[in-house]
Design brief:
homodimer, alpha/beta, Rossmann fold, 25% helix, AB_hydrolase_fold (chains A, B), hydrolase activity (chains A, B), AB_hydrolase_5 (chains A, B)
């Protein structure tokens, strides 16, 4: 699903963030001070990486986070098994990595979070309208699960049913009025619910939840 | 992707097999003697279950296999976490179950194969143009991986790269001339290669590989 052009352009025009396009992913970084924390973020199936610029721009600006939004391989494999450092290499100055994803991308992110052999080590997991497909055996891993009350794919019931697959300390944030497509700027999606908040409102809620999660004391323990 | 109507109709008209539609899946069973072996088969993402009737009709007829081709839930969840007995309940007379899938459906089938808590127990795994997303820790499980030389999604390189995730005794069959879409009757698919064999030829090869796999001594040890 293609990215909404205006939403992406607004981020490209934002002087507080820089956007660079690499083979492995789109890198969204602060033009001000970087926090040293990065997020490898995996889009939902067939969603354009640029659809997530608006999702993360506020957090990048406010917290200094760097985000690598992964690009699919040329021949869209149905399930991407490239190792984590394929993507982290796009932002070599980051020294602490989280993984995350939207929709099916979150299922893949859970696998990165689970795999103790990952290089670099994973310091946290961020799910947007998503869930893990099997139990995470990483009881200490900080996890943030942001869901939408109107999500017709990752429904509130689905989020609740799969909550037990995540560590006991997981932070769950349900955004009132957000749909599955509220987590990216790519238009409506079959099977989804109807959002009752604007994209800007959804982005503000996502930014608030992510910024809290990234505040010192949660993911960042130093 | 919708099923090819003529291919499905030919199976519906075949007196050697019966097709019944249940809430959980489409059940393809022999009208002659059933072997007692069943396969829960998970379609590729957004592929109509009826696209796989022609894929399995020959094996059902020749070996007495029963196949439950799973249907997605009403709101197409991006990743289906319903337990295995959701589907096996559609064919209660089967006493030995295999799991399998095409494309992303195979990734889900691997998870069923991995999960020791499944009810019923899984006796084998069948992958069509697919692979597991993490290593199967079931060294004794019989696994059949059928791939296509012209598959542009689960490419021969991808099958080779992920071979080590499967048990050492896995049977690999590459069908010369088959594409990703040769494993179902649903037309062409973006990113796929161009098949150089007919659907009937692909089905005959799939039937031969599956029938060998299901012969006494492999999956069926009694």
């Amino acid at each position: 699903m293609p990215a909404d052009r205006d939403a992406a352009q607004a981020v490209l025009d934002n002087p507080a963030v820089s956007v660079s396009d690499t083979a492995a992913g789109v890198v969204l970084a602060p033009t001000g001070e970087a926090s040293g924390t990065g997020l490898v973020f995996i889009p939902g199936a067939k969603v354009d990486p640029y659809a997530y610029l608006a999702t993360f721009a506020g957090t990048v600006e406010q917290t200094g986070l760097t985000v690598v939004i992964t690009k699919p391989t040329l021949n869209l494999a149905f399930f991407d098994l490239r190792p984590l450092d394929t993507f982290t290499a796009a932002a070599p100055d980051v020294d602490r990595w989280l993984v995350g994803g939207h929709s099916l991308g979150g299922v893949r992110a859970c696998m990165f979070a689970q795999d103790a052999n990952d290089e670099p080590e994973v310091s946290g997991l961020v799910l947007l309208g998503s869930y893990c497909a099997s139990a995470l055996e990483t009881p200490e891993l900080p996890v943030l699960s942001i869901s939408g009350s109107e999500d017709g794919l990752s429904t509130p019931a689905k989020i609740e049913d799969t909550a037990g697959l995540l560590p006991a300390g997981t932070t769950f944030v349900q955004i009132e009025g957000a749909s599955h497509a509220s987590f990216g700027a790519y238009g409506a999606q079959p099977g989804d619910g109807v959002p009752t908040i604007s994209p800007a409102e959804a982005e503000a809620e996502i930014t608030a939840a992510l910024s809290d999660f990234l505040a010192p004391g949660t993911v960042i323990v130093d």
